[in-house]
Amino acid sequence: MARTVDVSLLRKIKQHGACETLDVSACFNCGNCTAVCPLAQDSTGFPRRMIRMAQVGMEPELLSSEDLWRCYACGECTETCPREADPAEFMAAARSYAIARYDFTGLARLAGSSTWGSLLVFALFSVLFSLLLINKENPGAQLPVFDFLPGWWIHAIGVVLFSIVGLSAVCGLGSMFFRFWIERRREGVNLRWSAFPGAVVSAITEAILHRRFRECDSEGNPTPHSTEPIYRQIWFIHATVMGGFLAMLLATSLDFLLKPIGSPATPLYPMRLLGAIGGIVCLYGLSLVLLRRLKAKDVPWRKSSFADWFFPVLLAATVLTGLVTEIVVYLPMNTVGHDIFFVHVVLAMDLVALFPLSKFAHAFYRTLALVLFSWRHAPAAQSVVADAQL
Amino acid sequence: MNMQIDSEYRPDAVVVGGGIAGLQSALDLADQGLKVLIVERQPSIGGHMIALSKVYPTLDCASCITTPKMSAAAHHENITILTNTEVKAIKSADGMHRVELLQKPTYVNFDKCIGCRQCEYACDSEYPDPFERGLGTVRAIAVPFTNAIPQKAILDAEHCGTCGTCARVCPTDAIEYDQQPRSLTIRTDAVIVASGFLLNDIHLKPQYNAHRNKNIIDSLTLERLLAPHGPYGRVLRPSDGKIPTSVAFVQCAGSRDESIGVPYCSRVCCMYAIKQAMLLSGSLPLADITIYYMDIRAFGKGYEQFYQNAKAMGINFARGKVARIEPVSSGDLSLHVESTEDALNPLQEHRHDLVVLAQGMIPGWNPTVDTPVTCASDGFVETPMLTAPTITNAPGIFVAGAAAGPKDIVDTIAEAGAAAMQVSQYLFQKRSPVLVG
Questions:
Q1: Percent of chain A scored above 90 by pLDDT?
Q2: Higher-confidence residue: A159 or B422?
Q3: Do A220 and B336 touch (CB under 8 A)?
Q4: pLDDT of residue A110
């Protein structure tokens, strides 16, 4: 197939990077990054091939590549890169770019490539949710704003917005899957549907157990992180944030399903306890993340884009307001409780709405990428044929 | 060869460094009737070249080219050589340079020593031989190496057992345990900086694990293994003396790498690796030899043909920078590399029993020395004029060879001649201004 070199792709990806100094065009394709990577242990080649794809403008190949998401940003490639081309930051920028390309609304592009875009989307959502809540909580309130912005109107916007965001998430995943499917078929990879359930299981196992993530900090690999105690290693920090978040999600969902809304509960009520513990665990991880980004010493934390800050800060704020609410409802003089709870709910809604647009989107794109990787490398059916021939 | 001088001695030019660059420029100046002082930090002149096995692309014996030059310089009536001497400062004023020197004690009176080696034979203390890059040993009092010039014994105070045997056996009573460092200031009209290069450390990249395995060596160590008069007399690997069966050359191990602070190309590594691979295939006909490279820079006259010959000889060339070296069982090493030639199976692991790291050239000129000579950002002496590459920013101070930047022997000798020409022209103009005007 004839191919045209498209030099604009690299420029577009750079806009998603943590800083303008990301100089991935300095790469002379020596392959050091791939060979030093503790995770690239098979026939695939990242980050070098990804960089090469970006350099020559092979966008379909880049966006269809599950390898983009198999990197956990340990930073070993950047530490050892002979050209200081910062492959780790390139991979992060390329992932942000991919999120923007998978998303059809254009909001992810706005949020991922510019600080003001992010803030605009965030402010827009926050105002909307606040209005929505005020409107719902006080149906009879005589706020002047509702004179020209009727409540049902705001409510309808909310419904439409959540639908768009939800649709965007589904379409984003669909887009990733479709691109993968087209490219792998073109490459002649044999994808069998019978292997798909197994791939899903292995991806979810990996997502929960962080098995490959742990390789980033393994002994044989002299990263600056491998000497750290387990509770300070990157994979463990990620596990606490993810585990804490899942616990809170579970608690909230079960609360909603099992407990009558508004009914009082003791602090030791199982769902509430699960949520509180989840929140504390999650905050532990988030505080380490934010602290390291502030220190900016080791590679994965050295450069932070606005999106790198935005997601953990938003999540931390949500968790923190939630925990404070938990405490203040038991205080005798409860006057601020409502306000804090209000902020908590608005932030939580922001979090959900920004899910497919922010770095949060990695949660499902990465999981799908793990599924696609396992699917692609599932033991081929040919072995059965070979056995039959024997 | 005059080796004991005082501050009254007033040479026309001082050459800093007694390697091939310094020797060549000193000889070229001395042949014009100018008096030259060579200052050498090491116990012998000859520099790195005297330690090499053969030179590319002709595969001539390196000693056979260097020794006559060393000898010619040592016997030249216009050349004075100070070994074991460091330049502490160069101070320039009114067109004159005051070169401040520090002569380190050798604990042997060179006027009395006749190089008979009786002390060396009698000495009980041994330490890893610096000339053999730590392979093999040398006695605490010894002539530095077989073809060293001067052929005088030197006592290494750090490894001396102070038993007094050498003083007892010395037939000329040359041993002087009470020698002190001696400061010396020489006034001269011109200086040539020919301080050469140093090889950077094999431990620079922690991913190469050189501290965990003795079979990871640098290229100058392999030169000693390949030299006919080397430490073992044949090629054996250092950890256990096994004859290597699979040798890897890791190119750009110490150059072209921002992560170790050497972004530039050292220019010689591709060619000497090819040369060493050729020599190895001569001494180890059954060994597999692989050169891992990013690109082969065979830029000089006859170099590309040399490279093609090596390929035709069956030396493997694998494109890809080695990212990690892991020690595996029985002293062998596993190299991790992404092959940029094999699209289907790019990530590769190769096992070798000897690994040669092509370390980079870093400046031998110590920038802490108090001197008007300025260095560029890479640490090498700055040469502002493109059309006169031996002229520095300091009037009357010139530069030759690897002191000005990584360079091979051919280019170094050419530049040394050019520097000598610049000096004689400078002196001519300075002393006969009427003729020039």
A1: 21
A2: B422
A3: no
A4: 76
Interface mutation vs chain A, best among B203, B296, B347, most A CBs within 10 Å: B347
Q: What confidence score (pLDDT) does residue B231 get? A: 92
**Sites in chain B below the pLDDT cut of 50:** 437
The yes-or-no verdict on residue A219 having pLDDT over 90 is: no
B204 to chain A: closest CA residue: A80
Alpha carbon of B245: minimum distance to chain A alpha carbons (Å): 24
Tens of pLDDT, residue by residue over A106-125, are 777 777 777 887 888 888 88
**Which CATH number goes with the domain that contains B350?**
3.50.50.60
Cα R_g (chain A), whole angstroms: 23
Q: Is residue B397 part of a domain?
A: yes
Supply the pLDDT for residue A164: 81
Question: Are B283 and B346 contained in the same domain?
Answer: yes
Domain stops at, among B340, B361, B382: B361
Whether omega for the bond prior to residue B384 falls within 30 degrees of 0, making it cis, is no
A223 Cβ under 8 Å from any chain B Cβ: no
- Residue-wise pLDDT tens digits, A345-385: 888 888 888 888 788 888 889 999 999 988 988 876 444 44
Res. A145: pLDDT tops 70: no
**Structure confidence by residue, pLDDT tens digits, B108-132:** 999 999 999 999 999 999 999 999 9
The model's pLDDT over A284-313, given as tens digits with 9 standing for 90+, comes to: 999 999 999 998 887 778 888 888 888 999
Q: What is the 3-state secondary structure (H, E, C) of chain B?
A: CECCCCCCCCCCEEEECCCHHHHHHHHHHHCCCCCEEEECCCCCCCCCHHHCCEECCCCEEHHHHHHHHHHHHHHCCCEEEECCEEEEEEEEECCEEEEEEEECCCCECCCCCCCCCHHHHHCCCEEECCCCCCCCEEECEECCCCCCCCCCCEECHHHCCCCCHHHHHCCCCCECCCCCCEEEEEEECEEEECCCEEECCCCCCHHHCHHHCCCEEEHHHHHHHHCCCCCCCCCCCCCCCCCCCEEEEECCCCCCEHHHCECCCCCCHHHHHHHHHHHHHHHCCCCEEEEEECCCCCCCCCHHHHHHHHHHCCCEEEECCEEEEEECHHHCEEEEEECCCCCCCCEEEEEECEEEECCCEEECCCCCCECCCCECCCCCECCCCCCCCCECCCCCEEECHHHHCCCCHHHHHHHHHHHHHHHHHHHHHHHCHHHHC
Q: What is the distance between the alpha carbons of residues B313 and B308, in angstroms, rounded to a whole number?
A: 9
Same domain, yes or no: B282 and B409? no
Residues B232 and B267 grouped into a single domain: yes
- Owning domain of residue B91: 13-104+181-196+364-436
* CA B281 – CA A152 distance, rounded (Å): 86
- Predicted structure pTM score: 0.87
Per-residue confidence (pLDDT) for residue A383, from 0 to 100: 44
Q: Which residues of A touch B339 (CB under 8 A)?
A: 31
